[in-house]
Amino acid sequence: MKKYLNPNKEKLLSKGVDSVQARVINLCQVNPSINHKDLCLAIEKSYRQTYSTSKIPSAEILSQQTLDLIPELNTSYKFYSDTQWRYGQTFSFTHEYERRFPWGTISIGIISERDGLIHTCEIYSDSLFVNMINRLKENLVGQIYTGESIRQVCQRTRQQVESEQEKTMIDDIQAWILTQI
Q: Could you tell me the CA-to-CA distances from 17 to 2, 5, 24, 28, 60 in Å, in that order?
């Protein structure tokens, strides 16, 4: 975060803040029950308060049928929802993290090359369930590096293993990874 958000030090100090990181917080720390719908409603409410409620129609969730009836809107929807548009301009990055669980230690290294996809994934563990670790690694390669994608990969891997212990391990790994992204 420090690499990409680097405002003037004097500006930060004038705000009484030591760093950009000091101003960033995970919303779940403030409200553990927060969800996407509630966040959208809060943003809409704030927008209305700022820009007048009388002139702005209520937000509506558009169905595919509605989009099909309005070609220009459908074209915009397809353009802005395209993963290449959304993730195509990301910087190359490496993300490495490690954690000790009751069942063993796991180290994960992920490399992405400018498109937001996981190009390389290495997972090392002293766990005895080598096949589960390898399957998770194989399932992660080629996926978009987002929380939702990681969650889906973990759930798919969970379905591919047989023992309850492996399923529990994947649940542990998923919960941990989602706090790291």
A: 14, 14, 11, 21, 38
